[in-house]
Amino acid sequence: MLNVDGVVKTYETVRAVDGLSFEARPGEIFGLIGPNGAGKSTTIRMIMNVIVPDAGTIRFDGKAFSESMKARIGYLPEERGLNKKVKVLETLVYLGVLKGLDSKDAKARAEAWLERFGLAEWKAEKIEALSKGMAQKVQFIGSVVHDPDLVLFDEPFSGLDPVSQDILLDAVLELKRRGKTVLISTHVMEHAERLCDRILLVRGGKELVSGSLPDLKARYGENSAQIEFDGDASFVSTLPCVESVRAMPRWIEATLGEGRDSGELLAAVAGRLRVRRFQMMEPSLHAIFVKLVEAAGEAEDD
Amino acid sequence: MTKLPAIIRHEFKLMTANKTFVILTALGPFLILAITVLPGLLSMNPKALSGGEPIAVSGGGPGMTAAIEAASAFQGRAVEAVGTDAGSIADAKRLVQSGRYAALVSLADGWEDSGGSLYTKTGTDAMLYAAVERVVDESARQARIRRSGVDPAVARELTRRVDLSIVKLGTGNTEKAGGESDFVQTLFTAMSFVMLVYMTTLLYGQMIGRSVVTEKTSKTVEIMLSSVSPRELMFGKILGLGLAGLLQYGIWVSLALALSKLVAPLIGIAAPPVIEPANLAWLVTFFVLAYFLYASLYAALGAAAEDEQHLGQLAWPVLAFLIVPLVMISSFVSNPGSSLSVVLSIFPMTSPIVMLIRVLIAPPPAWQIALCLGILIASVYAAATAAARIFRVGILMGGKRATFGEMLKWLRVR
After folding, report:
1. A147-188: pLDDT as tens digits
2. How many CB atoms lie within 10 A of CB B167?
3. Residues of A with CB under 8 A from a CB of B
C-alpha cells in the first residue's frame, strides 16, 4: 500500500529524518512511534507531499504521489487547524466535497460520524464554539469522511480525555476491520500497543527497531510467566522449558528458555499445582524502547 | 481542476457572510447617494454646504453691502453692515469668533488704495475669499476711476468683464455646454469612482493576503492541500472573493442607476453626467482587472509571509503602486492628456485607476484604451502564473522570513 524507502529531510543543520524505510501493508495499522522531535511528523508530511524529501522515495501501490491520489488518502495533521468561523457540518461537507464526494453524500456521512462521536447537536455550531477535544474529533471525522483507503493520523490522541481517546481508538480499529490501511504516529507507547500490528520505533530521525509487536516482544522481552498457586512449586525450576525462576512462597516467576512456548509451561504446572493465576509477563513497548535507548548508550532526552 | 468550483463557492460564502463585506455593501449606497444626488441637491440649496451665517461688512461706502451680498449668494449668505468705529469692529470680530458671522470684511478709509482685511475664524473658505476679493477689487477700481473724473459709463464699458464658458467636447464632435457646476459634479463623481476602485481593490487584495497567511499559520492549509492542489486553492480563493466583489459592485451599480435614472428626475434634480451605463461598465471592468492583478500579488505575498506583520512589510511595494495614482489624482484630472497621465494609464500597476479617471473626465484615444486593456489583461495572466508558483512553494515554507530574492527563486522551481 505505502512504501517509504530511505527518506531523508534536513532542516538547516538538523537532520530531522535520516534514512527511514518502512512499509504499511493493506489492512494493517502501522505505528510510527517515538518521542517528540523524533521525526514522525516530518515523515508523515513527506508522505502527504506537504514537504519534499531531500532523498529517498515514497510510493503508493508502487506509484509516486500524484494529485489524483489525494481522494484515496485521509490526513489528520499534528497541528489542528480548521477555520474557526465555519460551522461544524459545513466544514465536514466541504472537506468531503474537496475529496470528491458529492455534497449530499458528504452530508450524510458527516452526520453519521457526528452522531457516532456524540457531536450531532453541535453540527450547526461554529468550530470556535467547540472545546479542543471536540474540535479534534471533528477534524478526525474530516480525515475519514471520504472513506479513504489509506489514513495518516499524526498524534490523533493528544489532548483528548480518556473517554474520547477510547472512542477514537475504536474508530481506528474499525477502519482496520474494514480493510483500510492506517499509519499512525504517536509518542504514547500504550496507544501503539493497543492498536498497531507493526511498528517502527524512531529516535533522532533514525530507526531504532521495527517489526510486528509480538515479534518485538519476543525479541526484546524476557518471556517470563508469573504463576500464583497453592502447593509445592519447587519442581518448576527443573522443567526443561524453564531457564530460571524467582520463587516466593505463594507465587513464582519463571523465565522460559529460548524458543519455548508458554503453553508447555502451563500444561506442566496445571496438573501438579492449583493454579490461581497464570500470566505471561510481556515487556511493554515502553520497556523495549528504554532498553534500546540504553543499549545505544544514549540518554533519554524528553 | 474539478474541485475549483467547491473552493470558489466556499470562499464566496465565507466572504459574503463576513461583517466587513456586509457593512461595506450596506454603506456603499450612502456613498452612491452622495455621488449621485447630493451634488445636485447642494447646488440647489447652497446653505446646506456653507452653514449660511451672514457676513459682516464694515466701511467700503454705499453699495458695498449689496455687492458683497450678490457675490456671496452662491453660498446663500446675508450681509450685515456694521460700524467703522473701533468698538463696532471689535464687537464684530467677537461675533466672528463665536461663529455668529462667517466673516468680517473691514474696509477702513483709504481702502480704495490700500485694500482691507477679511477676518474669519478658519481662514480656509477660499471660495468666499475669492468672491469678496473680486467685489472689493472691482469696487476699488470703480472708485479710483470716479476719483480721476472719467465718465462712469465709459469706465464701466472699459472694465466690463467677459465670461469664459466651459464646453466639453465629447466623442463624435458633440458639444456640451455644461458650465462650472457640471464640471465640478463630473469631477466629484469621477473622484468617487476612483476612490471606490482604490478602496475595494486594496481591501479585497489585503483580505486575500490575510486569508492565505492565516491559513498558513493555522496549518489549515495542510488539510486543504491534502485534498486539493496549491493552484486550485489559490485560484479558488481569488475567484471566490472576486465573485463577492462583483456581487457588491452589481448592487452598487444597480442602485446608482436606479437613483440617477428614476429617483433623481422624480425629485427634480440632475444626476451627475458621469453616472451613465457606459461609465459604470468601465468602473466594473477596471475594478475586476485591478482586483485580479492585486489579488494575485497579495496571494503570492501571503503565501510567502511568515505572519501578518511580515505580510504588511512585503506588501509595501505593491501598496505604493496603488497609492501613487491617488496622490497624483489632481494632476491627472487637470491634465488627463499629459504624457505622465498617458504613461501611467498604460503601465499595468497604475492603469486601472489612471485610465478610469481619463475615461471619465476626457475620453482618451481608443488605441490607448485598447493598449491599456491589452497590457492589463496580459499582466493579470502573468501575475497569476507567477503567483501560483510562488504560492506553491511559499505556502508550505515555515519558520523562515522569505525575501523577494527567494521568491524570485521559487518562480523557477519546477
Report:
1. 999 999 999 988 888 888 888 999 999 999 999 999 999 988
2. 10
3. 45, 48-51, 67, 70-71, 73-75, 77, 79-83, 85-86, 94-95, 97-100, 139, 142
Per-residue DSSP letters for B183-210? HHHHHHHHHHHHHHHHHHHHHHHHHHHH
Residue position matching grid coordinates 528504554 = A290
CA gap A148, A151 in Å, rounded: 6
DSSP annotation string for A170-217: HHHHHHHHTT-EEEEEES-HHHHHHH-SEEEEEETTEEEEEEEHHHHH
Domain with CATH 3.40.190 in chain B: 51-159
Q: What is the number of other CB atoms lying within 10 angstroms of the CB of residue B36?
A: 27
Instruction: Among B10, B221, B225, select the one facing A94 at the smallest CB separation.
Output: B10
With an 8 Å Cβ cutoff, are A77 and B229 in contact? no
DSSP A224: E
Check pLDDT > 90 for residue A69: no
Query: Which pLDDT tens digit goes with each residue over B106-146?
Result: 888 888 888 888 888 876 677 778 888 888 888 888 888 88
- Chain A CB contacts of B3 below 8 Å: 97-98, 100
Percentage of chain B exceeding pLDDT 70: 87
Dist CA B240 CA B5 (whole Å): 9
- Three-state SS letters, A130-181: CCHHHHHHHHHHHHHCCCCCEEEEECCCCCCCHHHHHHHHHHHHHHHHCCCE
pLDDT tens digit sequence for B20-33: 888 888 887 777 67
Residues 6+ apart with CB under 8 A from B370: none
Q: Are B223 and A99 inside 8 Å of each other by CB?
A: no
Question: Which of A194, A285, A272 shows the shortest CA–CA distance to A227?
Answer: A272
Q: What are phi and psi of B252, to 5 degrees?
A: -65, -45
Q: Give B32-86 pLDDT, tens digit per residue.
A: 677 666 666 665 555 555 667 888 888 887 788 888 887 777 677 788 888 888 8
Strands (E), chain A: 2-11, 14-24, 29-33, 55-60, 63-64, 73-76, 150-154, 181-186, 198-203, 206-212, 224-230, 242-247, 251-256, 274-281
Q: In this complex, do B215 and A81 lie within 8 Å of one another by their Cβ atoms? A: yes
Contacting residues for B199 by C-beta, under 8 A, at least 6 apart: none
B51-159 has which CATH code? 3.40.190
